[in-house]
Amino acid sequence: MYKHVTLLGWGKALPASRLSNDDLSQFLDTNDEWIFARTGIKERRISAFPVSEMAALAASNALACAGLGIHEVDLLILCTTTPDTLVPSAASRTLAKLGGANIACFDLNAACGGFLYAMHLAASLIESGAHRRILLVGAERLSWFQNWSQRSTSILFGDGAGALLLCRDEQAGGAICTHIGGDCRGNEAIKVTDYGAGHNRYLKTSPSLNFLFDGKDVFKQAVSSMLLSARQVMAQACVDETQLDLYIGHQANARILQVVADKLGLDDDKVFSNIRHYGNTSAASIPIAVCEAIQQQRVRAGQRLLLTAFGAGYTFAAAYLKLPERLHAVVSPLSEQIPQMQSGLELIWQAVERDQRHAWSRQPTVQMNKAVSN
């Protein structure tokens, strides 16, 4: 257990533009009832701006919450699968927007498990004395990856960012335990094809990316892996389910969250979920949920949180977080919403038309993946 590591600030940033299930039904063979019954999602946010823009706002809110400036931070870790650019890192671009200089920063990609991977690393670095304050940001623009002709995956994901500021503090009474794991046998279960340096860019390719998703295997492995990680971290912290005040799982699917909570023996009032509003925001889902849980007073100073995540790769992780005895925002958030002129449907419509033209040109060979069980 990292007894001298505590939470100092938190913040989030969400695009104003919403894409509802009814919006999706305008171009996909689906409806609100079908999507909500299988995923727990009602809407998701769509960003017109790159990841660094959302990340910088979430980070600014976390710093404002703590009453600190960016130059009082030692390290910034940006967890994302959708960076603005591969070179330079999206973390560097985020830092530039924050006005930071001479501060270490890097991107971390562990898919949906990324934020808890970063928390594991940050807590270790702080406890070791290598750094005093580390700003963790999870930010994703997953709408950019979507093939809008694929119902199975395009209903699942949304955009957004969240940030937590961790620091060394021997007086505040906070503590962190973390556990990370992986199973590379899941490499093909969640995959964006034809993207990255492993792809032959000289081959004629589709103008659309394909997001492959083996829903049945993901469901099974997510439940078992998050349970394994949760039990590991609870054992490290010497706590059991009766001592937890709130459970926040990665917001991927409402049914996965419910199964994990049931197997851990947690009552509904100890489970936090916001998936209906945002969908799966990958590495951003945990920090966004933590921010909202604190803001809604679902968890208070001195209370205990259990966090779990599971993502492509497969990656999985858990964290036990005892909040400090002093838990208050120094100032109100600057802004948590990124204003945009267009609706979510308007933002994606050009991509929808492109993806559907390509899908029709490949009929009847094109097949939809089954990302959610019937």
TrEMBL record:
Domain Beta-ketoacyl-[acyl-carrier-protein] synthase III N-terminal: 106-181
Database matches in Pfam families: ACP_syn_III, ACP_syn_III_C
Keywords, sorted A to Z: Acyltransferase, Cytoplasm, Fatty acid biosynthesis, Fatty acid metabolism, Lipid biosynthesis, Lipid metabolism, Multifunctional enzyme, Transferase
Coiled coil: none
Signal peptide range in chain numbering: none
Classification via Gene3D superfamilies: 3.40.47.10
Top-level taxon of origin: Bacteria
Keyword field contains Repeat: no
Pathway where it operates: Lipid metabolism
Domain Beta-ketoacyl-[acyl-carrier-protein] synthase III C-terminal residue range list: 235-322
Family to which the UniProt record says this protein belongs: Belongs to the thiolase-like superfamily. FabH family.
Protein name as catalogued: Ketoacyl-ACP synthase III
Organism listed in the record: Bowmanella denitrificans
Top-level taxonomy: Bacteria, Pseudomonadati, Pseudomonadota, Gammaproteobacteria, Alteromonadales
